[in-house]
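Record pair follows.
FIRST:
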Amino acid sequence: MGVMNIMLFHSMYGLRPAVHAAADRLRAAGHEVRVPDLFDGHTFDSVEEAEAFREETGKEELLKRAVLAAAPYSDQGLVYAGFSLGASVAQTLALGDEKARGLLLLHGTSDIADNASVDELPVQLHVADPDPYETADWLNSWYLDMQRTGADVEVYRYPGAGHLFTDPELPDFDREAAELAWKVAIGFLATL
């Protein structure tokens, strides 16, 4: 098992303790992990506040911040990872980085550019079932589009779990689903 350089992006709630705890879990498995703050220190307790801040900041600005955070390390071959909003950011960066080693998506996906192309990029998605933000129809078309890009995709669904089920500080938290997701994700990273 090699040491992976992981760029882990936070959810719409910002860089909260749960993100640092996840990074520590990945470090304990032997990986180097960086957790950039795309929100300049802002964290949120409600979806409404978080959504307003994200809208105000704008998708392009958030992507620019993510690219700037990843750029110094991308030559090493990064594994991009993220939670919900952070997963969509991670996916966008991984599909645009020919040196990407893998993509770990927790609770989220993103649109895929028509011209996106990768060389068998390993991708693993962990998502609630059902998930209000990741509907079955969306996930089916996302899966087919990711395969079209050349990605090697695995999807894990967690029946009855809330959207951000790995975050112990949120009502969505599901301990059993979270532990299983982490076990599978750490196994995935060990194969890269």
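SECOND:
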Amino acid sequence: MTTEDPDDRALWSQAAGGGAHAFGVLFDRHAKAVYNHCFRLTASWAEAEDHLQATFLLAWRKRGDVRLERESALPWLLTVATNVVRNEQRSLTRRLKNLKRATHDQTVPDHADLVAERLDDQQRMRDLLDAVRKLPRNEREALALCVWAEVSYADAAAVFGITEGSVRARVSKAKSKLQQHHLVLVPAGEDR
């Protein structure tokens, strides 16, 4: 961002007034971080793409109702993305239960021609995500925002409505528990 570039709060205000260009600038500024955050919550690049789109669609719809408390829109966008992923996972769980009741157990082979590196990234992320899911919710969310999405402790504290020290404690506890299982917090593959 140069000195001529408006901050997120100014862009959000313009977008709330119908400024599609301002919203586009916000998208360009934060889409990669939201996309990678969604991948880290799902262990799937394809799902991350869908969740990225759903997050910004919801942000566009709520632009007139939401007032940014901080200079950056990123913490709010990451919280929205977390909720989008959580809602989709709940919906998927319900659909799978209904499908299981309606059909017999049939295994369908995966014929997708995925790149080996992406498969490795996804498997490492799944293993990590399995361990992260066992953490208490407050530690999971603090870890996702502060470690994976690199949101500052101060911004995360504002999003969660707690002190910065409490956020640091949650992150520290989460890291400690994961390190006991020799898990690396960021997959070896680079962010997409």
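COMMENT: The chain has a mean pLDDT of 84.
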